[in-house]
Design a protein that fits this description.
The chain contains eight helices and seven strands; from the N terminus they run βαβααβααβααβββα. With 227 residues, it is an alpha/beta fold. The longest helix has 25 residues. It starts with a strand and ends with a helix.
C-alpha cells in the first residue's frame, strides 16, 4: 500500500484549529475512514523542550529576538520526533493524518521576522529542504487555512489568556500576530492552500458551518490522493 495522506489545519492563535481538527477527525471516522490526529508543538513530549523554552521567553522576551533559523530548528526537531515515534508507521501504511500546525506554521511565524524579500525567500527554501528533504518529514497533501479576522482572534485570545492565566511570547505580541495573519493570507494564496473564512462582520462564524467546509476540503484532498 502506498503512503498515507497528510492534511494540515493552519491558522493564527485562537482561530479554532484544535476544535476544527477534532471535529474533522470525528466526522471522517463516522464516514468509516481510518484517521489519526497529531498536534504541534507536541507539548507533552520531551522533544518540545526547546520549543517550550523559546515560547516562554527563555531565549528572548520577544519573538523577533530569536533567529528564525534557530526557532525553526526547535519546532522541526519536535516534529521529527513525533513522526518517528508516533505516526510514521501508520502514515506509511496508508493512514490519514490530520495535523494541527506543521512545517507550514514556520513558513509564516518565523518568515515574518525577515524583512528583506530575497532573504525571506531563501529562508522558506531552506525550511522546505531542511524538514522535507534533510529530515525526511512527509510533505502535506493539503493545507486548510482557517482565516479568522485579527480583531476577532484578538478578543478570543484575550478571553483565553484571562481564563488560563497564560500567554506565550507569540500570543502576547499582538502586532506580531497581525503580521502573521497577513503573511498567512499571502502564503495561502501562493501555495494554493484551501482558505476558509471563519469570521463575518467582526464576529466568528458558527463552528458547525466552518466544520462543514473543512470536511468538504479534506474529503477532496483524500479522494484526490486516491485517484
Amino acid at each position: 500500500m502506498g503512503k498515507g495522506t497528510l492534511i494540515i489545519l493552519e491558522a493564527g492563535d485562537a482561530s479554532g484549529k484544535a476544535t476544527q481538527t477534532r471535529l474533522l477527525e470525528e466526522r471522517l471516522k463516522e464516514a468509516g475512514r481510518s484517521v489519526r490526529r497529531v498536534e504541534f508543538p507536541d507539548y507533552a513530549a520531551d522533544s518540545s523542550a526547546l520549543v517550550r523554552m523559546y515560547l516562554a521567553g527563555d531565549f528572548g522576551k520577544e519573538a523577533d529576538a530569536v533567529s528564525p533559523y534557530a526557532a525553526s530548528a526547535f519546532f522541526a526537531v519536535d516534529r521529527y520526533a513525533s513522526y518517528q515515534m508516533k505516526w510514521k508507521e501508520y502514515y506509511e501504511s496508508g493512514g490519514i493524518v490530520l495535523a494541527d500546525r506543521y512545517t507550514t506554521s514556520n513558513m509564516v511565524h518565523q518568515a515574518v521576522k525577515i524583512e528583506d524579500a530575497a532573504e525571506r525567500e531563501a529562508y522558506i527554501a531552506w525550511l522546505s529542504d531542511f524538514e522535507y528533504d534533510k529530515l525526511g518529514l512527509p510533505r502535506p497533501d493539503g493545507v486548510i487555512f482557517l482565516d479568522m479576522a485579527p480583531a476577532v482572534s484578538d478578543r478570543l485570545l484575550t478571553a483565553r489568556a484571562k481564563a488560563e492565566g497564560r500567554g506565550d511570547i507569540h500570543e502576547t505580541d499582538r502586532a506580531y500576530l497581525h503580521r502573521c495573519h497577513e503573511a498567512y493570507r499571502k502564503v495561502a494564496a501562493r501555495f494554493g492552500w484551501h482558505r476558509i473564512l471563519c469570521s463575518v462582520d467582526d464576529a466568528p462564524r458558527p463552528a458547525e458551518d466552518i466544520a462543514a467546509e473543512v470536511y468538504a476540503a479534506a474529503t477532496a484532498v483524500i479522494e484526490g490522493k486516491a485517484t
